[in-house]
Specification:
Layout (H helix, E strand, L loop, with lengths): L6 H12 L1 H4 L15 H8 L3 H13 L3 E6 L2 E6 L1 H12 L3
Antiparallel strand pairs: 1-2
Length: about 100
């Protein structure tokens, strides 16, 4: 899932969302830290369409590595640090 050719983009998303202020411009709607990053901002940074970005975001949200937050009619994405640590712990144990 994360090591497939497009998995590099998913790893980039996880890395960028670790410090969204350093990697994304201020958003018109939603706070980068409090709310998360918009799919449009992620698509622009990846250089892909919103549909492709949304596919990555849906997958990462589906496995619990990202959280989606609705603000008005928009969805913003941020890392689920607890879940990421939990998954990392499984790999450390040789899973």
């Amino acid at each position: 899932m994360l090591r497939a050719p497009v998995g590099g983009q998913r790893l980039d998303i996880l890395e960028w969302l670790r410090d969204p202020v350093a990697h994304f411009p201020v958003q018109r709607h939603g706070d980068l830290v409090e709310d998360g990053v918009s799919p449009e901002a992620l698509a622009a940074k990846l250089g892909v369409s919103r549909a492709v970005a949304r596919t990555h975001l849906d997958l990462l949200t589906g496995v619990g590595l990202l959280r989606a937050k609705r603000v008005r009619r928009r969805t913003f994405y941020s890392r689920d640090e607890y879940r990421i640590a939990e998954v990392g712990h499984f790999f450390e144990k040789g899973w």
